[in-house]
Design the sequence.
């Protein structure tokens, strides 16, 4: 692990999913947003890669840890890049259908919401996360 000035330039690698499902009864597309009390924000489930872990494995693990849902991953979505505390961060995302599970509050996430796309767009804290909704609908197509 780099120390000193090099540590500030090392990219933080993370991965996550835009977790989706079809709403019971209507079949409308819904996405899962997580609320992180530490940051008081609403975002897609994501987290840092563990040493030796692939980005896809990290994305699936983070979805399970943060939402309680098992995810069937699909297409890779755009990678987001942005600075955090003076360091570059890179987050790879996948579209993922929730296949089973249930949410229980935990140390990182205290609430989840399943929302239609328009409501999710408004609720997301960071504008960069909204682009992932467009990418998801582009991959899934209209239904």
Sequence:
């Amino acid at each position: 692990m780099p120390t000193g000035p090099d540590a500030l330039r090392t990219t933080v690698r993370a991965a996550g999913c835009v977790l989706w499902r079809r709403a019971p009864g209507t079949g409308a597309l819904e996405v899962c947003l997580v609320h992180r009390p530490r940051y008081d924000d609403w975002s897609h489930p994501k987290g840092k890669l563990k040493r030796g872990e692939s980005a896809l494995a990290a994305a699936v693990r983070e979805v399970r840890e943060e939402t309680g849902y098992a995810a069937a991953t699909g297409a890779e979505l755009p990678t987001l890049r942005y600075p955090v505390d003076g360091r570059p961060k890179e987050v790879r995302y996948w579209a993922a259908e929730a296949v089973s599970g249930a949410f229980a509050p935990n140390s990182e996430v205290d609430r989840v919401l399943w929302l239609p796309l328009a409501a999710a767009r408004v609720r997301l804290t960071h504008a960069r996360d909204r682009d992932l909704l467009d990418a998801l609908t582009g991959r899934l197509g209209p239904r």
Summary: The domain at 5-140 is CATH 3.90.79.10 (Nucleoside Triphosphate Pyrophosphohydrolase).
